[in-house]
Amino acid sequence: MNFSEYVADLVAKNPDERVFPFEYADKKYWIKQVEQTTGAMRLLKPNPTASLQREIKTLQDLNQRHAAVAPSRR
Q1: Residue 59 burial (CB < 10 Å; 0-12/13-18/19+)?
Q2: pLDDT tens across 9-24, in order?
Q3: Core-most of 1, 6, 15, 49, by most CB within 10 Å?
Q4: pTM of the entire predicted model
């Protein structure tokens, strides 16, 4: 199973986990999924997918500037 298939399997098995670690080929990674908002939180965070995309973009920009952040993989 390649990396992408492994990640897809983990995501399918952990749909309610917002953030969780895993290891692949002796390296540690973290998966961060889109937040599932309910109730009043939908008013405070109306578009969690866009929020996660902004976070990814910010981390990529910081990484290009050699800041001390983990590189993102999509």
Answers
A1: middle
A2: 999 999 999 999 999 9
A3: 6
A4: 0.75
